[in-house]
Amino acid sequence: MSRIALITGISGQDGSYLAEMLLKKNYEVHGIVMRSELEAPEGRLWRLSGILDQLTLHPASIESYPSLLKIAQKVIPDECYHLAATSYVSYAFEDEFSIFNSNVNGTHYILSVLKEAAPHCRFYFAGSSEMFGKAKVAPQDEETPFHPRSAYGITKVTGYHLTCNYRDNYNMFACNGILYNHESPRRGNEFVTRKITNSAAQIKLGLAKELILGNVDSERDWGFAGDYVDAMWRMLQQDVPGDFVIATGKLHSVRDLCEAAFGYLDLDYNDYLIVDERFFRPKEEVPLVGDASLARKVLHWQPSVSFEQLIRMMVDEDMWFLQHKSRFAGETKNI
Ligand code: GDP
Asked: Is the pTM higher than 0.85?
């Protein structure tokens, strides 16, 4: 009999890669989506378009305990991957009340309904390097203290502790992944990788003339989302639950990104770059770079796509999409 997986946030970048991977492994895959997404599948569900007929999608708000309980009672999942979250990283707090509702309550509700309806279910929580925020040491690993500096980071630290507490207090098989930035051709335009690869493609095709960025000396540890969903799955296949940093361990600057994307198209990014202070964010004194030794040792996980391959993959997709856009008449590719 196939195992049953339930994915919150299935329509996002990670959800779509994870769903594809689990289908290949013969899982019965269920996803929770917003009702508005189901009503216009050609819009928000574009990442799932190749597999929609193989999925069972349930409309519900992650902020509604009764709706989540009904779904859990109906599906009775063996594995639950909780990826849904408001992911905007803002350093202002006054506008951020709603993110606490969706991210903190959403995680608490889903843990609680699983305890109620499917206590055997294995649970994955999508933590983030933003939990380390203003880290004092680099690289960071599972023992590094959290020091979040954004509303998003605080909600992820809270989700992490909720997950640990359901594991300790209720004996649930619950794991935290602490994932560093992971990108793909399915990444949204609000992230700097996509902004750069899309601008490079547009400039190459004569559709744009400039690349407007914030701090180009910022550094990140960027990996490929397809590799990172494999790590999520591996965590839930262990004999004992645990928490794992998932990262490449390699730092690259925004400049390196520009060089990789523009260089691939035989362009020099310096000819197009405009630095705009509106996009500046406080730079980390200690860079966010992960040490995934534990995942390598216990999960036998390692990244398979290099930084250059990742950027090329994204540029290829942007070039293809811009050249074939007319084929998508009526469809909004929401990147
Ligand atoms: P994040 O790690 O979740 O914040 O991922 P982003 O892709 O949004 O940002 C990665 C890094 O790129 C951060 O250090 C930003 O400060 C830097 N960056 C520089 N220019 C830009 C820009 O124009 N847009 C974004 N999103 N980030 C930028």
From this structure: yes
